[in-house]
Amino acid sequence: MPKLSNYRFITFFLLALFTLNSCKTIENLPGSDAREISPDPKARVKKNLEEGRGFRLDSALQGRKGGDFMFASANELWRASLDTVDFMPLSSVNYSGGIIVTDWYSDSDNLDESVKISIRFLTNEVRADALDIKVFYKKCNQVASCKISQKTGSLNAELKKQILSKAIVYKKQKDDKNFKPYKGSSVDTTK
Fold it and tell me: Which long-range contacts (C-beta less than 8 Å, at least 24 apart) are formed by 64-71?
């Protein structure tokens, strides 16, 4: 087994090799003309930030926003959709991708038929064309050969109607400045 000092030597050698290999001469660097670069470091930092080549840690610590992200709890359509299909097991949920896919679900009355729902969000606005809902049926016979088909009809319309009505209630509650839901319980949407 090699001694510990051999590992230190090898580590130092590799680090030095990497450092020296990554160095370039000043002439090869873009913008390396000293006449074009300000000697003032604050001016250089300001220029780099304006060109999008850096970031300021102190501005992040001062509470300035680095981006505008809407979280799932603030999106009424997202919350309403999850509340509507919460009795079904979920297969895939991706807020940033705007999709909810349930797993196959069947009730105890009809075990040879299952349903799977896919909800795609086309916009964050609460409106009728904001959702693309697809319902898939799986019907299996006794020997476990199954037929899967996509169906349009009353279930799609009913799901969309229920999601939109819940989303409208959530939006009104969010817009109401005096509304404070009780923490730890779900919001009552029967109003």
Answer: 70/124, 71/95
66-70 own/partner pairs: CB under 8 Å, 24+ apart: 70/124
Side-chain-side CA neighbours of 190 within 13 Å: the count stands at 2
> C-alpha distances in angstroms, 53 versus 46, 49, 65, 72?
10, 6, 18, 31
In the chain the domains, ranked by start, together with CATH numbers, are 4-61 (no CATH), 72-175 (3.30.530)
C-alpha angle 83/81/109, rounded to 5°? 65
Beta bridge partners of 119: 100, 133
Q: What is the pLDDT along the chain (191 residues), one digit of tens a residue?
A: 555 567 788 888 777 766 766 555 445 555 556 666 777 777 777 776 676 665 555 555 555 554 444 556 678 889 899 999 998 999 999 888 889 999 999 887 887 889 999 999 988 888 888 899 999 998 887 777 888 888 887 888 899 999 999 999 988 887 776 666 555 445 554 44
Q: Token digits for 185?
A: 């319980």
| CA 113 – CA 147 distance, rounded (Å) | 10
